[in-house]
User: What shape does this take?
Amino acid sequence: MRQVECGRIRNQQGSCAAELRRRTPHSTAREPCPLRTSTSRRPITRSVATLKTLSDTAVIHENGKDQRVQAGLFTMAADQGGALQTYCIDIHHPTQDGAKYQETPWSGTSLNANPDAGKIRWILENSYPQVNDLAGLAAKAGSGALTEQTAAAGTQVAIWRYSDGADVDAVNPAAEKLADYLEKAAQNVAEPKASLSLEPAAVSGKAGEKLGPVTVHTNAASAQVEIGGDAATAGVKPVDKNGKTVESVVDGTQLWFDVPAGAQAGSASLDVQATTNVPVGRAFASETRSQTQILAGSSGSTVAATASATWGESGPIPAVSAEKNCAKGGVDVTASNQGDKPFTFDLAGQHHTVAVGKSTTITVPVWEDQSYDLTVKGPDGLTKEFKGVLDCKVASEGGASPAGGQSPLPSASPSTAAQGSGADTGSGSAPGGDLAATGGSSATPVIAGVAVALVVLGAGTVFFIKRRKPAEH
Assistant: This one.
């Protein structure tokens, strides 16, 4: 599997039989090898896109050595509408082919304990591409003329200095002066709110009642609501506090699941979708060992979020959800019980009980960069599974002991996108000694090769597929 590292390219298959190379007067960097894509797909909405990049050269100074890399900006333009532009915030961490990304709060990423996280957002809001007047940006920075490539490189270098504490310089003098200006001028600003989220993620109760409320948080002007799956045909409806059916919501709207009396025990999802610009500074984390990205800009994109409800007539009626907790070095699993009997369940080899009308949160310790597969097992065959990777530190910080020194969860088998991620522990130089490539390509706006990157906005999904550039003859 080929891995693109923020700053470098790794190829665990060795050299490719048919390798595409960039041909420009100023770059000898190799084009990534054509990539193989998995044929296994979940039944989700897909969008084909061309992945473009803008970049220039930077130098990482580390352990007495200098490593020349590419530093730049990703632009993903989806055919079905919407575009995302990102910088990376983990200079040494590889990006996995086929990785699935999800819009994530800073608390679930390496930014969680970074006192300079707000400065990164300031840089994003005060540099390229948010500031596209390059002459004006150059005047502020005193850098001399900037191109899109050097502006992107200077911005990425400034971000790395705060995200990784990296000793890194841009090779181009104007890009370096821009990076220095941004680093010195940056101020700590607050984390941006999510483009779309639902709280809580799970509710429960008895049939014949309204289950909730679930509160909508969004920066969109409005969002559409529906009940997913077979529950809608069974009479389950999204309603407001007065029991009126709801089809459209705004920020702050509270929703309930209206479950008919006499309905058999079951569950349903509440699906909310909107078109909006994702806020600059939102983080994107992967479910596999793939580098974290931070949003530099977006056009109108489709975002989605889902909440679930469980109901029954009697006995325990649980609602279970999970969330990464970087501060504690683990995954928080929260279980509530709105039934008339205690809810007992097993999680990570431990037995737990939630009293009637109560809620409990268990933090399952997980090692840094470890994939986890947590399954809640309850009565009557109830199971709830949560998978992911805990990625709370930049690679240069290394792993730390999880949650209060507890023994970590045994490592789960890595997913397809993560397999092989630990096989290459070299310096990250491109094969043959050429200039390594980063989150960007300075030679051509379209990266050659075929790959799949899955970006999740809110809880919705968009596929981004790099198109293969015709080989030069």
The chain has four helices and 28 strands. The longest strand covers residues 49-62. Residues 148-163 form the longest helix (16 residues). The radius of gyration is 24 Å.
